[in-house]
Amino acid sequence: MSATGVDVFDRTLQTTHIWLNEIGEHPSLAPDKQLSWHVLGAVLRTIRDNVPVELAAHFGAELPLLVRGAYYDQFRPEAQPRRLRSREAFLKAISDDLATSRPVDPADAAQAVFKVLAHYLNPDQIRKIRMALPEPARALWPDPDVPVATNG
Predict the structure, then answer these.
(1) Is 151 within the bounds of a domain?
(2) CATH number for the domain harbouring residue 63
(3) Ramachandran region of residue 88, left (φ > 0), alpha (ψ -120 to 50) or beta?
(4) pTM of the entire structure?
(5) Of the four, 3, 57, 75, 87, which is 20 to 30 A from 151 by CA?
(6) 86-109 residue pLDDT tens
(7) Cα dist. 11→14, 26, 34, 108, 141 in Å?
(8) What pLDDT score does 151 carry?
(9) Residue 150 within any structural domain of the chain
(10) Helices (H), 1-152
(11) Count of domains observed in the chain
């Protein structure tokens, strides 16, 4: 049975819940969907504000409809790209956006969202966004072409 009666709404709600659940799997974020929603929006907006406008628009088109709304919240294309030059400045932008939620390590927030984005979005689009970020911010986002080492 449909939750809303509109298939596109049901699909975006389902996808958004999946993303929020995966973000909430990060140990420091706990399974708190409200917090995960704030984290997702803060990280996406920080990405958006630090890449060229055209690339930001292409990236936004890849996002689920509901998530896209959070991504474009308070969007000011004339002020972009912001180009924060240090890791600390990039993380501070995330932290400032999260100021209304409970305290969250912005590096944990970024890594949790980057992991979800890498899992669900087109790898070529991820590479383009990642490479458009300033190098210190890019270092927070593992290169999709480099396998992750596991202990075992």
Answers:
(1) no
(2) 1.10.490.110
(3) alpha
(4) 0.89
(5) 87
(6) 889 999 999 999 987 788 999 999
(7) 5, 24, 19, 27, 27
(8) 47
(9) no
(10) 7-24, 33-48, 53-62, 65-72, 87-97, 106-120, 123-132, 135-138
(11) 1
